[in-house]
Amino acid sequence: MKKILYFEDEQWFADVLVKEMMDQPYWLFTPVTTPTEFFKEIKGSCQIDLFILDIMAPMKLFTETDLNELSEAQQRRLNEGLNIGVVFYEKIRELEKFRKTPILFYTSKNDPNLKNDKNVTYISKPSDSKSIIAIIHKLFNDSEL
Which CATH superfamily is domain 2-142 in? Predict the structure, then answer.
């Protein structure tokens, strides 16, 4: 069973993909819509085999507790306009168990600073669920999970 953690701040958008993903055998699909849920999942003892992240999300999603999860530099960069998905990427890569875990950015914005990570893939919004599922299959087949 492969565990997929999916962060999407827009619940209605997440619901569409979740519906399709739940039909996939051998995948445990976990959607989260807030930084609080995201941090809880990555700090848990469970392995996550793939992250699907939205790059852009409003700062208002962060609670004071969420901000305490970030370094001062990450907080400063968020305040300067760094996208939340990039901060989540940094938090994922800080954890040894996730250093090589594939990350799929499902977004309307690419971040060229992440292009050097061979375990990062982008798919543009909007994309149909069949395209996303095909990319996930490819990522699982190409990775050393």
Answer: Response regulator (3.40.50.2300)
Three-state helix/strand/coil letters over the chain: CEEEEEECCCHHHHHHHHHHHCCCCCEEEEEECCHHHHHHHHHCCCCCCEEEECCCCCHHHCCHHHHHCCCHHHHHHHHCCCCHHHHHHHHHHHCHHHCCCCEEEEECCCCHHHCCCCCEEEEECCCCHHHHHHHHHHHHHHCCC
Task: Give the predicted TM-score (pTM) of the model.
Answer: 0.84
37 in Cβ contact with 65 (< 8 Å):
no
pLDDT at 112: 57
Q: What is the pLDDT of residues 70-129, one digit of tens each?
A: 888 888 877 766 678 888 888 999 999 999 999 998 877 666 567 678 888 888 776 777
